[in-house]
Design a protein that fits this description.
Length: 165
């Protein structure tokens, strides 16, 4: 069996495994799987089926991807409060800066008082700029749940911050 036939016969399995584990379609991971298969073909031992060997490689590549992307997010992220405190406008006058700081503290306090599931959605979508899909992948829930939580969180914040609006 040549390599092109190998890719064609296992393409759907590899795609499905990657999608199942990472919750996204990722052609780079597919390519990485086939590169590993190609590089390690001489190490394959005929103890099991070739198909299961490729599927195992796809699982391992997907899991490694999740570990590395989660680690990158954790390494690059700061606490929510630290991030909110860094959002400042340097063009403000001292008087406006005092007003802005007071306003910012009220917003931080209101976000902190939200239910945890609302707070995490507000932080991901509104503060960190995640798309609904990215937030859904991060929190492992449907996009509709993200939209619903975001709507409810904004409703709660509007009530809590009514004096600022």
């Amino acid at each position: 069996m040549n390599f092109n036939e190998l890719i064609k016969s296992n393409k759907n399995n590899v795609k499905n495994i990657i999608r199942l584990i990472t919750k996204e379609t990722n052609e780079d991971l597919e390519q990485e799987v086939y590169i590993k298969v190609w590089k390690n073909a001489d190490k394959y031992k005929e103890q099991g089926s070739f198909k299961s060997w490729i599927c195992t490689i796809a699982k391992n590549v997907s899991k490694d991807y999740l570990k590395s992307s989660r680690k990158k997010f954790q390494d690059n992220s700061v606490s929510d409060d630290e991030f909110l405190n860094t959002l400042k406008d340097s063009k403000l006058t001292p008087e406006l800066r005092v007003i802005q700081n007071d306003r910012q503290n009220k917003i931080i306090k209101a976000i902190g008082e939200l239910k945890p599931k609302f707070k995490e959605v507000i932080m991901l979508c509104e503060i960190y700029g995640f798309s609904y899909e990215d937030a859904a992948n991060k929190l492992r829930c449907p996009v509709g749940t993200i939209k619903s939580r975001l709507y409810n969180a904004k409703k709660e914040l509007a009530v809590k911050l009514e004096d600022l609006l």
